[in-house]
Fold:
Amino acid sequence: MSTAIVTHKDCILHDTGMNHPESKERLIAINNTLKRFKSNKIKWFQGEKINLEHFLSVHSENYINDIKKKSPKEESVRIDADTILSKYSLEAALKATGSVCKAVDLIFKGSFKNAFCPIRPPGHHAEPQRAMGFCFFNNVAIAAYYSKLKYKVKRCAVIDFDVHHGNGTQKMFWDDPNMFYASTHQEGIFPGTGFKEETGINNNIVNVPLPAGTNSLLFKKSYDEIIFPKLEKFSPDIVFISAGFDAHKNDPLADFRLNTEDFFWITKKLNDFSTKNCKGKLISCLEGGYNIKALSESCLEHVKGLIL
Ligand SMILES: [Zn+2]
Structure:
């Protein structure tokens, strides 16, 4: 058995309202596509809630209490222009994070080499004290610190190929030389961070902003020539992926020109890296991706790159 797929049914209940790009239809399509893909190398799991202490490794207690307080009994509240907290959003967010931590447990029990977590709401824009960009809790950062607390992992890397910069993850890792964050993203779009001069306390942050129109060739070159050499030098014990699929050429929110197969390429590269350097330990969690067909097909390519 090589790959665990960990999600939670409550992630579907997060209701962002009509015409919001981050819809439950995204997750429904991904799950349907992955379930149609019959492979004896994958097994499905449901995530579990984790203790508050793990959220506190990256978020402040005030912030968590504030989100709980704002969580509505009926209808929805707007945290910012596009970040919506509905009746079930808090539950969905807690279980999204719990799903990535469950993936960490499965990997460290040794039953699986790697995992993909199709979850929502996404997490990489969530800052220590601020929800933004559809995100409430920083799933990938919490799971990385969870692996440190529970399994005494020393060095974690997060690779973020979402077309947007993961400002939240960068902020959480900035001062910690044992945490590495690398991102390729479109320059000049939301959230407006991710300049190449932003390098963290110990060159543990690597930003590769790329222009609108970036194609497969430039994307691959950025990984081969910039990110992988720095990742190798950092020498992580485990690799996490902030897997956003909005760099696809058909995505409505950005202007990269990646093909569906490029998500196989990057996943296979990261799988090969972790096999060689981290005993295979690789955990991927869903971030963006808003063209439902492109998203679900790209997720399938992603999983095909994990099961090898
Ligand atoms: Zn994105």
Residues 143 and 265 are 24 Å apart (CA to CA). The chain has one domain: 3-306. DSSP finds nine helices and ten strands in the chain.
